[in-house]
Amino acid sequence: MPRHDPSILETWADLPGLTALVADALDELGAGAVLGTRAVAPLAPNMRVCGPAVTLRYVGVQGEPGIHRAAGASVLAGDRDLYAVASPGDVAVVDCGGVTSAVMGGLSAQWALTAGVAGCVVDGAVRDATAIVDSGLPVWSRHRTPLAARHRVEAIALNDVVNIGGRPVRPGDHIVGDLDGICIIPHQLVPTVAERCLTAHDREERLMATIADATDLDELVRATRSTRVAD
Ligand SMILES: O=C([O-])CC(=O)C(=O)O
Ligand SMILES: [Mg+2]
């Protein structure tokens, strides 16, 4: 997969409100994708991540899980393989192919942490939410369920293009996530988006200070008129 030098994250990955800054940059560039929390929501409010994607795609398995289990069928999960191909700081992105049972839980989260994975985005379900939150691994998912995906899914692709919330994620694209949702930055646009985020952050900080210090709201409207979308 294509990779930027990890130092590319140094200047902007910790900016406050990062998904909003990235979403604005992607909007201006007409590129990438932004997914709100109806698609994938964080398990806890303080979760945030910024890093390159490694990807896994599942499909549903036909037939009854109990029959597969009784027949001694293998569990065809791919999360451990995904973590094995990840470099420290990567974001594990899992496309569950519409399957609604849980493809990861507390054990998987611990495995991800041990591998140095920075966070997980699951278009599908997770379980053991308390254990995941307690582990400190940032995780976004479409929903949660106690029901395991074992014998209900089969891993079919590792580090291939996947579909998250109807939008493509390619290995090496950057995933930015926080309480607002996630953004998908195409690999080649990461430097441009980083630069735009820094500029926008400076502008917003100045505007925030102007608003906080204002004593006359009419004057504030006049002073900030050029920053308004419509007047
Ligand atoms: O065991 C599973 O299938 C998923 C799970 O609960 C875990 O990773 O802890
Ligand atoms: Mg578990």
Automatic annotation (TrEMBL):
<dbReference type="InterPro" id="IPR005493">
    <property type="entry name" value="RraA/RraA-like"/>
</dbReference>
<comment type="function">
    <text>Catalyzes the aldol cleavage of 4-hydroxy-4-methyl-2-oxoglutarate (HMG) into 2 molecules of pyruvate. Also contains a secondary oxaloacetate (OAA) decarboxylase activity due to the common pyruvate enolate transition state formed following C-C bond cleavage in the retro-aldol and decarboxylation reactions.</text>
</comment>
<dbReference type="Pfam" id="PF03737">
    <property type="entry name" value="RraA-like"/>
</dbReference>
<protein>
    <recommendedName>
        <fullName>Putative 4-hydroxy-4-methyl-2-oxoglutarate aldolase</fullName>
        <ecNumber>4.1.1.112</ecNumber>
        <ecNumber>4.1.3.17</ecNumber>
    </recommendedName>
</protein>
<dbReference type="InterPro" id="IPR036704">
    <property type="entry name" value="RraA/RraA-like_sf"/>
</dbReference>
<comment type="subunit">
    <text>Homotrimer.</text>
</comment>
<comment type="similarity">
    <text>Belongs to the class II aldolase/RraA-like family.</text>
</comment>
